[in-house]
Here is the input.
Amino acid sequence: MGNRGGALHNDRREIVRPFKNQRWITCVLEFRGRHRSVMSPGRYTELFFLDEAVAFAAGHRPCAECRRERFNAFKRAWKQPDASASEIDAELHESRVEGRARKRTYETAMNSLPNGTFAEVGGSAFLVWDDSILLWTPVGYRAKQPRPAHLTVTVLTPEPIVRCFLQGYEPEVHASARALKRGA
Here is the structure.
């Protein structure tokens, strides 16, 4: 689960903005017995992701409270490990959106991308993993293809997060990705 810094919905549970501030985080579904009603009036809007790799592609980072170990690992992989959460959020925000709503992407060689990165290939989103790419769907990864050689792609994961992957942070992925990698 994640959020984008506040209420993105109105009292009728209609989404009225793409984000409220720069703090886009991913949280665990259960933490210290807390309970929430989804889209409570005046409270932050809950966002749900298939897995951590998808949340990263959307531009989120691990929560420093409920996902402290993952946040610390992410911070160690960050270009400045002593950066504050606010400094990380500010840089991530610059790399994930243009204006108020347009997703920022960039082009690079497919063979330069680390595990966990999302790239657009043929109009679809694929997770890069080892020598393969896995087709993303809202309910799981559905098809495995060999990673195309010598292809320039649109990268959906923000560049600072890709750098963290290159520094050894490996995102958690849905069971369907692991099954495809095993050939099941």
Summary: The helical segments are 52-57, 68-77, 85-96, 159-166, 175-182. Residues 1 and 33 are 15 Å apart (CA to CA).
